[in-house]
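Hi everyone, sorry if this is the wrong subforum. Our group has a chain we'd like a structural model of before ordering constructs, and none of us has done structure prediction before. Sequence below.
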Amino acid sequence: MTEITRDVAIVGAGAAGLTAANDLKRAGLSVVVLEARDRVGGRLWTDSIDGAMLELGGQWVSPDQQALIDTLADLGLDTYSRYRQGDSVYVGPDGEARRFTGEMFPVAPETEAVIDEITERLDAMVAEIDPDRPWAHEKAEEWDRISWDAWLRAQTDDDEAVRNLAFATGSAMLTKPTHTFSLLQSLLMAASAGSYSHLVDADFILDKRVVGGLQQVPLRLAERLGEDVLLDQPVRAIDYSDDGAVVRTDTVTVRARHVVLAVAPVLYNRISFAPPLPRLKHQMHQHFSMGFVIKVHAVYDRPFWREQGLSGTAFSPYELCHEAYDNTNHADERGTLVGFVSDRTADDLFRLSADDRRERILESLSHYYGPEAKQPVVYYESDWGSEEWTRGAYAASFDLGGLSRYGAEQLELVPPIHVACSDLAGPGYQHVDGAIRMGHRAAERILEADRA
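Answer:
Right subforum, don't worry. Here is the predicted structure as tokens:
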């Protein structure tokens, strides 16, 4: 057993933990980062699959994500715009693929009017929400008692409008069935991006990618820390008191004045705390769970959809793959599509064999792009639900009533333990931007405590 002493022990080498570690080290404190995986990055992972570079986790950068944009500049990383020239495709309830341009799906005029009206109403509600304190809104408890699906269906009996409005925060972002989370949770998701309109605008929320992959952010942050990052070190126990903490892995014991838990809250129960965490924290974490999405990568010998005048952007609340995009890598002659299958649909797919699952998914993509979509040269499914140290995607969210009941407690654990994770962010919630913001926040809290 190796024993070391540091000012701060950080659990988790994702963007949040590595940001906090770099800030603290720059301020003159000694740090160590303990990572359970054999790599850094957490939910950021760029890998080569059958000769194709694929971003298996998070990958996009949007204009409002200033913390991430600043970090990319600091690390000297370049970005490029997602391909979006040409028509998008929408598949409606009749199964017919329709081409369109702009933000609005090609739906009936009366459905378009309903979508516009409710979107305007949602934007006004979101404008009242402080993403750092959504539970402080005067209607927080009321909005947290009704599901996202039930609220939408109370606004209109137009099922196609409801499905398209529900899509942005349901299948696309929180990746849970829309009856399982609240209106308030949905408003927080939108507020974290600036507005509901931002959230439904693919050209905004999925604006740019990083040349070489977004995992370069944690990789380069880790390089600055050198030997202070230890891999294959799942933390088993944390003993803490007012004087500091002892953090134990299977092979390393760290004595530190502060600890940063930079992992998803759903993983806190993998650690034995002594004394046990306060009762309210135990209750809170039982109402916080991950969503589930399959990220599908299909690589072709060329981006054939561009020859048809298609941008690669496709949507449908009726399709197995509810959304898909041109995900071709920078300066790559081959073409890549990325598609997404969420919540209960993803559950059902994993009850099938791998061959049947692939056939079903590629069939769905062909409904957008034609039969050539069924013949990729590389095919891969990112399954974060099977990752031991993630257990879902993209992030954790509260069940009905949980956000107003426990939200104010989630950012505070118990001294000297601090938290940092995209799941706990306001602006940038469940994005890398939020992870970086939370890493900065944890470092600031520790430095403030030391100055006190």
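For your construct planning: Residues 46-63+79-84+205-211+292-386 form a domain with the Polyamine Oxidase; Chain A, domain 2 fold (CATH 3.90.660.10). Residues 350 and 357 are 7 Å apart (CA to CA).
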